[in-house]
Amino acid sequence: METEHLTAEQLKAELKKLRDELCDMEDIHSFTFQKTQVHISAEKASNMQAEFDEECGQYRERIALIEKELLKRGAL
Length: 76
What we know:
By secondary structure, the protein is mainly alpha-helical.
């Protein structure tokens, strides 16, 4: 995503969207691994955790990039 071509308002909207999506992912992950009684094999659980960690990392990187751009513009 090229952040320098977007307006501050567009960046703020994207930042909110990304934060909301990350929060949703974390809620689903928490429910799956902590609040259900469903049995998941250790291998599948490990794979799911690795995918979750990778995806969350990507969201956090994009969030950090947008926050950096907004700070640079004095808009955060």
